[in-house]
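Complex record, two chains
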Amino acid sequence: MSREERRPVLEVSGFSLKFSRAPEVPNLVDNVSFSVGAGETLCVVGESGCGKSVTSLALMGLLPSPPAHIVAGTAQFDGKDLFRQSERELADIRGNRMSMIFQEPMTSLNPAFTIGEQIAESVRRHRGKSRAEAREEALEMLRLVRIPAPEKRLDAYPHELSGGMRQRVMIAMALANRPQLLIADEPTTALDVTIQAQVLSLVKNLQAETGTAMVLITHDLGVVAEVADHVAVMYAGRIVEYGTVSDLFDDPQHPYTIGLMGAIPSVGKREGPLATIHGSVPSPEQMPAGCRFAPRCPFADERCIDQAPPDKLIDGTHRVACWVAPVELCATPRTKEVTA
Amino acid sequence: MNTPASPLEGATIDTPKPPVIEARALTKHFGGTRHLFARTPTVYAVNGVSFAVQQGETFAIVGESGCGKSTLGRLLLRLIDATEGRVIYQGKDITQIDAASMRKLRREMQIIFQDPFASLNPGMTVGQIIGEPIALHGLAHGAARAERVAQLLRTVGLQPAYADRYPHEFSGGQRQRIGIARALAGEPKLIVGDEPVSALDVSVQAQVINLLEALKQDLGLTLIMVAHDLAVIRHMSDRVAVMYLGEIVELAQVDDLFDAPLHPYTQALLRAIPASTPAARRERPALSGDLPSPTAPPPGCRFHTRCPHAKPRCKDERPLSETLPEGRQVACHFWREIQNAGGGTPLVASVSPKLIERLGIYRERQALANSGV
């Protein structure tokens, strides 16, 4: 949507990470670059083990090092490189100008404190408000995330709330200091579909009001279709395709993106068996040398197995890391007849 | 696209066959027992649920967490005993039969669990896990049993050599295949899948869905799917029962249910599905509030606290399930008045032509690779 206000809030470039210093171990996250502007939503989509959560934790500085080791790359946020901040500097940024929502609303709240205290804590820590002011602010946040009877809930403990309600509390905490950047790691995965719809529309509305940039990590292409402006598709630690949400849904280029879209059952009329992607994700120790998707890719040839593909620009911001894309060039004469 | 029509698609309920399994006014309450100082709260998990599943059908039970769908699946297999009501399996009441006869019947009624990481014994090899039901039911011994295990592994798309490995050596999708092979070991007629694909990644989920469908066709199985993912249900099932707080609110053929949902809860559920493409984004009135606690279900219609169409009558009077001419059931006082409320925006926007073309080429290349070039 907001192409004119595309001044990146966060700009990650050439980010590589591994959980070892041994040179022979392949990078778990390899040469990842993306940016997100004010009021924009970037979805990072991929399956388990693709490195999407590790990327978000690294941005927040939440990965213990060692074993985590950032091999290369920068993450420019607010004039600073997040990867080169001290723990103390990060503590000032986290929960203040940049905050995070985790997947598990059950485990990411402290069971020993009331939700009012937990929201107020970050307000007091970062804005130096008094206890009473912070409590007032917490109440305001609960109203904002539409929790019914907020005055009563302020003194409730996390176990007294349902999953959807806890996730709202997490959102209230994350947004309490009006961050410029929000990182949401699978924020609705643990929720039922009607509650997911509530939470997604809530986040969207709040984002429109506050202009917060959001990086949303998800495995669900439905969520991507619903909220994303830009999308990065990750596979085995690399971004294999990047573009606007309509680039990706109207013109998917990478064989992995294509297979993934064909593998989702449709809510429309049934159309035969689902497309599948053969095999499974490579383990971190045994990353293929060339294109990491090659062993599972129906289009892979010698070059794909030997050499990692460079990014190919399709148009605008749409780029794909694949030697064979667009796959039409690989169509056999028979397919051409069928589709003609 | 060249989609082979499933032979089951034509099978409708008007061919009178005796149902494979039938629930009659099935009820399960948990708790309510006296402890030293107090009584534990009673959880009304399943309340007076009735339906019949036909031979060869895929019957789906859908609902949100806490609606009692898993409890219902377990009641059908008598993994837990009902508080009230009966389960009829092939014309025979199995609610009261003794443990020995029930054990014999278990061979025919199997379950696939949700979590492939928790449902396989980590101390047993895959061969032992799959061989156990074969041994228990005395189906084969010695070399014949090993041969049967190998055959089952091939059936679910795994190498027979995997029989000597342990569950931790496999990925989630492979483990779920092992769970399926174990369920198939006794040559069952009926399989209950309790969220069998919801813990899996999309690409693996598609593999397991295709496997389940192929097995069902080849072996003539009847499948009961307990699930919360509406797209999976639309894809796999013939009929769908929608549950809310322990009751079935609507039961219909899958296409009827998705094209024209009658119950306001079904309507809300379908509206909540995320858009399938960015072009299908829409403002939609989301259902407000949370599921009430099953320890204190609301009186009258259980959905009235969240229903956008609720009237005073809904608070006082519990709606009875009404059966429409085509066999469809709905439990709502006012379904006639609100039947168009669920329509309006179609659920799916058209898929991009480029994706369709590329997916066609993708499938063809994959088939070519499979045929062993």
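Note: Residues 202-219 of chain B form the longest helix (18 residues).
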